[in-house]
Amino acid sequence: MSNPLLLTQVLSPQGLEQALREIGEARYHNRHPFHHLLHSGALNLGQVQAWALNRYCYQAAIPRKDAALISRITDRNLRREWVHRILDHDGRDGEEGGIDRWLVLTESLGLKSDYVTSQRGALPATVFAVEAYVDFVARHPPVIAVASCLTELFAPDIHRERISGMLENYPFINESVLVYFRRRLGQAPRDAEFALDYVKRHAHTLAEQQGVLDALVFKCNVLWAQLDALYAAYVSPGMIPPGAFDPGQAPC
């Protein structure tokens, strides 16, 4: 993991927060060209399908990532707080979760849910990036694993941009299929503030604080790599890997 911000002394909690926010400002994937194309209406239906299909792999991995984190936590109170993240995505009895809401989006785009959930059409780079994230969380101490979730600090802005841009620019998108993003406008800030407070209270040493910063850089890279793959396969030069979703062919 490369990080231009190499610490030479321990930061105050406020200084650590500032450093984290600077990383997000510079590296969050809202800066990626693919997102600008998506939100401005420059993509066709097949390209939007490819984005939604590949992004499902990430959405489906979030509960596994959170379960891996919980398995490393010895603090009972933290486990009790963190478990709601799994339920937010997997759902509860009688209440759909984020994964269900994402499938509403993919279905509205003309993709069959069994094909989406099988992940057969996902780009290889998407699968590698997502699994690298799950593995990272499973291998690192809780304070560093929690820090990798801090991209949520920057998520509401991109959700708002996505909602307005997609509604305005795509005739095949309507309000009902964007419920996932509407729900995350409330969930992400709540989760991010808890995670940020936890990191500020528990990252005390130079090594811990450097690990926290590196974790956020890593997570930004995970998100960026997924968009790199989408851009290469479906925008320019359009090199779709064997077996990956091809907008010109019906998924089987």
Describe the structure.
- The chain has 252 residues and is mainly α.
- The protein has one domain: Up-down Bundle (Heme Oxygenase, Chain A), CATH 1.20.910.10.
- It is built from eleven helices and no strands.
- It has helices at residues 13-27, 33-40, 45-72, 76-90, 98-108, 113-118, 124-139, 142-147, 155-169, 179-202, 206-234.
- Helix 3 runs antiparallel to helix 11.
- The chain is globular.
- The mean pLDDT is 91.
Break the fold down into its secondary structure elements and pairings.
Blueprint: H1 13-27, H2 33-40, H3 45-72, H4 76-90, H5 98-108, H6 113-118, H7 124-139, H8 142-147, H9 155-169, H10 179-202, H11 206-234
Question: What's the short story on this structure?
Answer:
The chain has 252 residues and is an all-alpha fold. Helix content is 69%, strand content 0%. The model has no long low-confidence stretch (mean pLDDT 91).
